[in-house]
């Protein structure tokens, strides 16, 4: 089958979070299942700079008022279509916001253009290639199924994956006349959403199948407290809803071969992790001792529970732990962690940024990784932690609940435990989880078994890719 994937990020060309990782890894995993995937992505500067001899396959004189070209290229094993539109994507800053963190005020136009091009490809705009199915990721690409439905590609199967329902692409009614859709697209079964225009909502009502990135999250978003206003729509389409757990790139995230580590290791050579631990301590200015080293690699936001963790830092240090934080996000939370590092010099270290290389090293050197999210569709960080023997301490939500086996007495006794779960996600339960983790860490034999059990677990894309391939075939049939 020929699959067109449409997304706003793809690793290793552009990434702000797990979306980019998934969009980059899934096409490769699907190859062994007879799927030929080509991914349409925006032509950000970081993407265009990686293209070698791209081929122009289509041109637009006025795509939402701007000239644009579709480029065909191959980067590594990824087959790409790149929307080269300088007016929309050649900007300093991130893919969605400027360097100050302010969202681009024309994001609706930028990603409507991306979606429209996706629908054009589906309808046969490229003479040499036409997909059998289109898979759109998150709100930035979710208008693709809507353009297909109200255009010339209504009969081609359409899949939308929700990576995070909190981000929906909601805009005013005033942009609808500029979207190039017919009048009948405005309505409750189209793009209209509480009197405005909803990109993700339009994709969900137009899709033949909806997937989320974990089974538990697929259930959670059907409840009002987690549905972000779309629980009624999702529940009404429950027969088309599939929770398929994300995987990780097992070759990229392999502690035995990872070039970003000071020293490679496996579940048979855990003692080698100590060299990576010392490197983390040095990088964050932490004292060299045997205290349990907690690490955080995260966006510093309310969703990720970082406000609760900032309040729990004194407890963590008071119990004898150390903390290294890598991330950026809300300025008050950045300030709270920096203040904690100032209070607890040598016990708490903070780097306000994102550094992919350092993230690998922290997973390889930390004892435990803290993920106290209030909601988490899937999460990849805990999977990386499991792979690297960095025990996850997670809230019992979404994909975190699906992937980490809590170290209760029965799980420890049977050797099945892989981490620490807590719930509900609140400050009290987080502090209890930190205390439990420090107590578990003191039992070196049990801790080592937990590390090895997690490292032996299989969270590659093999099983999940098979489920996606089966879904694609069922829709095509």
Automatic annotation (TrEMBL):
<dbReference type="InterPro" id="IPR001296">
    <property type="entry name" value="Glyco_trans_1"/>
</dbReference>
<dbReference type="GO" id="GO:0005829">
    <property type="term" value="C:cytosol"/>
</dbReference>
<comment type="similarity">
    <text>Belongs to the glycosyltransferase 1 family. Bacterial/plant glycogen synthase subfamily.</text>
</comment>
<comment type="function">
    <text>Synthesizes alpha-1,4-glucan chains using ADP-glucose.</text>
</comment>
<dbReference type="GO" id="GO:0004373">
    <property type="term" value="F:alpha-1,4-glucan glucosyltransferase (UDP-glucose donor) activity"/>
</dbReference>
<dbReference type="Pfam" id="PF00534">
    <property type="entry name" value="Glycos_transf_1"/>
</dbReference>
<feature type="binding site">
    <location>
        <position position="15"/>
    </location>
    <ligand>
        <name>ADP-alpha-D-glucose</name>
    </ligand>
</feature>
<dbReference type="InterPro" id="IPR011835">
    <property type="entry name" value="GS/SS"/>
</dbReference>
<feature type="domain" description="Glycosyl transferase family 1">
    <location>
        <begin position="282"/>
        <end position="447"/>
    </location>
</feature>
<protein>
    <recommendedName>
        <fullName>Glycogen synthase</fullName>
        <ecNumber>2.4.1.21</ecNumber>
    </recommendedName>
</protein>
<keyword id="KW-0320">Glycogen biosynthesis</keyword>
<dbReference type="InterPro" id="IPR013534">
    <property type="entry name" value="Starch_synth_cat_dom"/>
</dbReference>
<keyword id="KW-0328">Glycosyltransferase</keyword>
<comment type="pathway">
    <text>Glycan biosynthesis; glycogen biosynthesis.</text>
</comment>
<dbReference type="GO" id="GO:0005978">
    <property type="term" value="P:glycogen biosynthetic process"/>
</dbReference>
<dbReference type="GO" id="GO:0009011">
    <property type="term" value="F:alpha-1,4-glucan glucosyltransferase (ADP-glucose donor) activity"/>
</dbReference>
<keyword id="KW-0808">Transferase</keyword>
<feature type="domain" description="Starch synthase catalytic">
    <location>
        <begin position="2"/>
        <end position="234"/>
    </location>
</feature>
<dbReference type="Pfam" id="PF08323">
    <property type="entry name" value="Glyco_transf_5"/>
</dbReference>
């Amino acid at each position: 089958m020929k699959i067109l994937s449409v997304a706003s990020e793809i690793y290793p060309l552009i990434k702000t979070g797990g979306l980019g990782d998934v969009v980059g890894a899934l096409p490769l995993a699907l190859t062994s299942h007879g799927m030929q995937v080509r991914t349409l992505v925006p032509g950000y500067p970081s993407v265009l700079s990686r293209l070698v001899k791209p081929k122009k396959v289509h041109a637009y004189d006025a795509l939402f008022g701007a000239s644009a070209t579709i480029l065909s290229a191959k980067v590594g094993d990824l087959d790409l279509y790149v929307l080269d539109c300088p007016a929309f994507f050649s900007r300093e800053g991130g893919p969605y916001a400027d360097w100050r963190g302010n969202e681009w005020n024309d994001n609706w136009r930028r990603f409507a253009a991306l979606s429209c091009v996706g629908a054009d490809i589906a309808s046969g705009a490229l003479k040499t290639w036409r997909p059998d199915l289109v898979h759109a990721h998150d709100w930035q690409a979710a208008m693709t199924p809507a353009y297909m439905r109200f255009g010339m590609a209504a009969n081609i199967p359409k899949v939308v994956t929700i990576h995070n329902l909190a981000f929906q692409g909601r805009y005013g009614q005033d942009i609808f006349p500029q979207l190039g859709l017919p009048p009948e697209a405005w309505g409750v079964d189209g793009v209209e959403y509480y009197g405005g225009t909803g990109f993700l909502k339009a994709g969900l009502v137009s899709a033949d199948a909806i997937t989320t990135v974990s089974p538990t999250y697929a259930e959670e978003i059907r409840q009002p407290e987690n549905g972000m206003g779309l629980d009624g729509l999702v529940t009404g389409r429950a027969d088309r809803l599939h929770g398929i757990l994300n995987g990780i790139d097992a070759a990229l995230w392999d502690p035995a071969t990872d070039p970003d580590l000071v020293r490679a290791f496996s579940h048979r050579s855990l003692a080698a992790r100590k060299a990576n631990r010392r490197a983390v301590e040095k990088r964050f200015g932490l004292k060299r001792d045997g205290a349990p080293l907690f690490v955080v690699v995260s966006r510093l936001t309310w969703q990720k529970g970082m406000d609760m963790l900032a309040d729990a830092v004194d407890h963590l240090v008071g119990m004898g732990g150390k903390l290294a934080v890598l991330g950026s996000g809300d300025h008050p939370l950045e300030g709270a962690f920096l203040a904690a590092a100032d209070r607890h010099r040598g016990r708490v270290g903070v780097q306000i940024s994102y550094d992919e290389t350092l993230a690998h090293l922290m997973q390889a050197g930390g004892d435990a990784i803290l993920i106290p999210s209030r909601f988490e569709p899937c999460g990849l960080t805990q999977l990386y932690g499991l792979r690297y023997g960095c025990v996850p301490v997670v809230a019992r939500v979404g994909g975190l609940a699906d992937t980490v086996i809590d170290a209760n007495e029965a799980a420890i006794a049977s050797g099945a435990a892989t981490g620490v779960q807590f719930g509900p996600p609140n400050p009290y339960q987080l502090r209890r989880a930190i205390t439990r983790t420090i107590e578990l860490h003191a039992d070196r034999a049990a801790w080592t078994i937990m590390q090895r059990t997690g490292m032996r677990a299989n969270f590659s894309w093999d099983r999940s890719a098979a489920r996606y391939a089966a879904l694609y075939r069922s829709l095509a049939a």
